[in-house]
Amino acid sequence: MGDAIERALVDNSPGAIVVRRDLGRAPIEHIRDQTITGYYTPDGGMTDALRDATKLSNAIIDEVRVEDVLLITTPMSILLA
Asked: Where on the tree of life does the source sit, at the highest rank (predicted)?
């Protein structure tokens, strides 16, 4: 279903750029204590380790902020007994 919605959006928006994040193929690690510490540390107190811990999160946040449309899909499974 997500692919169909994506096609419809692209068909109706010439020049649209699609950015995909497939978490099944390229999982994002779980948030760590050091990442949270980095969120609350002023720029002057950031160490290289804290910058590294927040780098991926900051990149994803920046990616989402600039988008006009955000389509989030998830697989659905039907379990039959």
From this structure: Bacteria
Tell me which residue range forms the domain holding 52: 2-65
Half-sphere exposure of 41 (CA within 13 A, CB side): 17
This prediction has a pTM of 0.69
- Total domains in the fold of the chain: 1
Q: Does any domain span residue 25?
A: yes
For residues 35 and 54, the answer to whether their CB atoms sit within 8 Å is yes
d(Cα 22, Cα 30) in Å, to the nearest integer? 15
What does the pLDDT look like over 35-68, one tens digit per residue? 999 999 999 999 999 999 999 999 999 999 998 8
